[in-house]
Amino acid sequence: MDSDSSNDNTNNSTIMSRLAEGKFVLIAEIGVNYYDIATKEGITPMEAARLMIREAKEAGIHAVKFQTYKAGTLAAKASPYYWDITEEPTQSQYELFKKFDSFGLDEYRELKEYSDEIGIEFLSTAFDYDSADYLDELMNVYKISSSDLSNLPFIEHQAKKNKPILLSVGASNLPEIEAAVDTIRAVSDQPIVLLHCVLEYPTPLKDANLLKILSLKRQFPELYTGYSDHTKPTDNCDVIKTAYNLGALCVEKHFTLDKTLKGNDHYHAMDPDDARRILAGIEELDMIRGSGELNCLETEMTARANARRSIVANGFIEKGTVITDTMLTFKRPGTGISPDRLEEVAGKVAAADIEDDTILTFDMLKDPDPVEDVNRDDQ
Q1: What is the DSSP string of 57-86?
Q2: Is 3's pLDDT higher than 90?
Q3: Residue 357 DSSP SS3
Q4: Which of 248, 265, 289 is the C-terminal boundary of a domain?
Q5: Is 368 left (phi over 0), alpha (psi -120 to 50) or beta?
Q6: What is the CATH number for 63?
Q7: 35-85 tens-digit pLDDT
Q8: In the chain, how long is the greatest CA-to-CA distance?
Q9: Do 127 and 31 belong together in one domain?
């Protein structure tokens, strides 16, 4: 991956531009949660989707992501559920997806235009070839779901669009991840972001397995690393902050305006207040982490001067005396001659009487008189 790629897709993408600068990216996965918000608020799905985009923008989120599919092309009618049915009672994937698949190109174009208008990046995960094709004109970045990690023909189809790809790697083994990456690389040199993900809804904290982020970074050092989070939000945002500290620059999390709603992805989603806490937490972490430069901070200068040591007279030194190591010791503060310059002091001559426990400075010293040295040698 060439993280300095200057293609238009990367330049026009808030996600990729921030990643190239080493900045944190938060993506609100609205998915299809807007249908339930519409029902709750008594508004249309389009009005609800626009409302959620606006709330995400006001919370400081960098991008919004939807899910684009038709139930008939995504799941067989006999497909079983794999989620917590106490939260989402629908027991067939097909029946669940059928509830939320009414949007098409015209609706997503409207959402894209609205996102552009208010200044937040738009993208949507495509789940079939038709949506992958018509979303092309609307997105600068493709997102591929963990569920399609082994769907190499579909991955190749999207990679041929020659745009950066966010690739979730939930429920996968290393050879499968390598195969997916190789499939992309065979047809595209665009940036790839690998998103650690656990396909457990919600993900218990004990299963978050965030050290996998480090494993992905070691295994794919040329790629960006991120995290698609399915844990329930906590007030301290420790999961996402830990993921960021482990190297996940890009974090995607489901987004809702009401976490108490049953069904869909509300029960493990962040709401606008959660998003604000996440972004504030990351900002605080950035402050704590600092620049990493190997130099003394300006704020340390006073302590440095007082806590370090100087060369100090270890007894009275008479004027004209040639100074030797045994006449010296090292004490705080460090406002005099540093001990690492001892060789520049030994062999000098005291320019005046130097009292015991005096912090030496170079104006107290002078070079030996060459004539005296010659006479001394003759004797």
Answers
A1: HHHT-SEEEEEE--HHHH--TTPBP-S-TT
A2: no
A3: coil
A4: 289
A5: beta
A6: 3.20.20.70
A7: 999 999 999 999 999 999 999 999 999 999 999 998 787 888 888 887 788
A8: 111
A9: yes
The answer to whether position 340 is within a domain reads: yes
Residue 365's CATH number: 3.90.1210.10
| Domain termination site, one of 237, 264, 289 | 289
- Note the pLDDT tens digit of each residue in 217-253: 999 999 999 999 999 999 999 999 999 999 999 999 9
Residue 1 within any structural domain of the chain: no
Domain span including residue 357: 298-378
Judgement on whether residues 19 and 56 belong to the same structural domain of the protein: yes
199: left (phi over 0), alpha (psi -120 to 50) or beta: beta
Closest CA to 206 of 232, 226, 228: 232
pLDDT in tens, 150-185: 999 999 999 999 999 999 999 999 999 999 999 999
Average pLDDT over residues 94-102: 84
SS3 329: strand
